[in-house]
Amino acid sequence: MESLEEYLTKLASPSPTPGGGSAATIVAAMAAALVAMASRITAANPKYAAQRTVALSLAALADTLRVQLLDARKRDEEAFAAVMAMRGEARQEALRAAAEAPLHAMRLALDVEQLAADALELNNPHLASDLGCAAELAAAALAACAYNVRVNHAAMRDAQTVAAQAEEMERYEREGSELLARIRAAALAKHEP
User: Fold this and answer.
1) pLDDT given at position 188
2) What are the tens digits of pLDDT across the range 9-19?
3) What is the distance between the alpha carbons of residues 176 and 161, in angstroms, rounded to a whole number?
4) If you average pLDDT over residues 82-100, what whole number do you get?
5) Helices of type H across 121-158
6) If you classify domain 19-190 with CATH, what class do you get?
7) Following CA atoms 165, 171, 173, 175 in sequence, which dihedral angle do they give, to the nearest 10 degrees?
8) Distance in angstroms (rounded) separating the CA atoms of residues 91 and 128
């Protein structure tokens, strides 16, 4: 398994992969890990015994999303490599897949954001800042993925696919923005100094 330092060294290299889409999935995976941590800490605290089952369920969902996001990283890198390798009509198909990859990662990032909101409902004020950070990271990943969807759309000739993907992307952006605003308010309200 590649270490974080190894990944960041590759990211800093002159190679086009990994790039922004890959980095966005790592950021969202970190957000999922924060949700899992906060949920497990809450589950382990006797003060929150009534929330233990829900907290453990949220941790398990966050773990699943973290794994899916790491898979999405590979998908994004492979899709971009295919675009670079293809020409003509094959390149158009590769561009469609390269737009689908970050679109899929956007959905996962939005799911992480929702889990952060759900974990805030456990009402552990000591972890509100961690969950706020998780939501911010997930929202940043979602926004970063949108750049990659749009850049692929700019080179695609299939207007119908572009329109369908753009509609989905804009829905994720809208839902993510609304959710982040609610999470920010809730996290600040629950935070204990």
Assistant:
1) 85
2) 999 999 999 99
3) 22
4) 95
5) 128-155
6) mainly alpha
7) -150
8) 45
Residue indicated by tokens 């020409």: 87
Q: In angstroms, rounded to a whole number, what is the distance separating the alpha carbons of residues 2 and 70?
A: 12
Give yes or no for a cis peptide into 18 (omega within 30° of 0): yes
* pLDDT value of position 191: 60
Residue type, 17: T
Cβ–Cβ < 8 Å for 155, 133: no
CA distance 67 to 38: 17
31 and 110 in contact (C-beta within 8 Å)?
no
> Distance between CA 3 and CA 153 in Å, rounded?
33
Q: Say which DSSP state 57 is in.
A: H
- Could you tell me if 142 and 176 are in contact, meaning their C-beta atoms sit under 8 angstroms apart? yes
Does the structure show a pLDDT above 60 at 192? no
Q: What share of the chain is helix, strand, coil (3-state, %, to 5)?
A: 90, 0, 10
Q: What is the three-class DSSP state of 193?
A: coil
Name the nearest CA neighbour of 62 among 28, 35, 40. Answer: 35
pTM: 0.95
Write the DSSP string, 11-40.
HHSSSSSS-HHHHHHHHHHHHHHHHHHHHH
